[in-house]
Structure prediction request, 335 residues.
Amino acid sequence: MLAEPIPEFLLASPDAALLTILEPVLRDIGSRVEIALTQEAALKAMTAHDPPAMALVDVRLQGKEPAFDITELLVPVRTEVSRRRLSLVLIADEVTDRECGFLDSGLVEDIVPRTMDAAWWRLRIEMALRVRSQSLELEALRDSSRRNLQMDHLTGIYNRETLMAVLFRETDRVQRMKSSLSMILFDIDDFGHWNSQLGAEACDDLLREVTARTSRMLRSYDVFGRPGKDEFLVALPGCTQAHAAMMAERLRSIFSAPFEVDGKAVRLSACFGIADSLGRSPVVVLREAEQALACAQIEGPEAIHWFDDPQPIPFDLIPVRILADGDDELPPPEE
Prediction:
């Protein structure tokens, strides 16, 4: 486990006596302490691209306007940087209902009276840091849970539900930009045979390796998912059927090298169905890709079919140059 980074602090106060007590305490706990004497300086520090982990803000902080109220600082800061996990501690002359309201509304994480000595300050700051650490850990667990719901647990690519949601989003862009989008659906030939011969665990390894080899062929903005047990879908933004045929040939090449499972060389093949979006519902386009794939499977292993062409795509009509990783023969999606 990686060590938690040492926190950095912002101390926003015009109180010289308080600064004298707090600065050494903060420097002992953290790696850097920044001092802000005005509301403007504090706001700039807290809304920076890389804000501190914790800000201790004094209610006595003043702004350019005589009628400045600390709420005018807390509200915009919390609105702007809450997503960047800034912890706010309010230094108060006394804890009144007003200050408790800041705490109840989530504007601050803690309220500390200024009369506390150095030992108590250290205790309260370390407690606030522990709460912050627990909050970040909980947030990370929630993010991980959301990702797990979106991804296929075996291969780590989009599951069918998320895949369809992404395809609807891409279709919206196609309609808006009048651009191209093609889909390639491919299925591993006779995968049931290998499942009976090698067992489920070995076949899971095969699916993961197919995923890895395919991913290396794709651009960063291509969409890749697993809609079925041994089926994979690649969506190519900005690509026509001709470009999709080139990509299908590249994908067919990943099966040319044997797969190794438990010390055995296994040779797989796949069939490919291609359909063009034309801005239509992904449900319709996916159905067409399934029909094209069915035609390819009738033709035999490694066949590639377009949806609107009942004949297989002849091998000699498809560019056979296999691009190295990083080459970009296909056009980027239109913005």
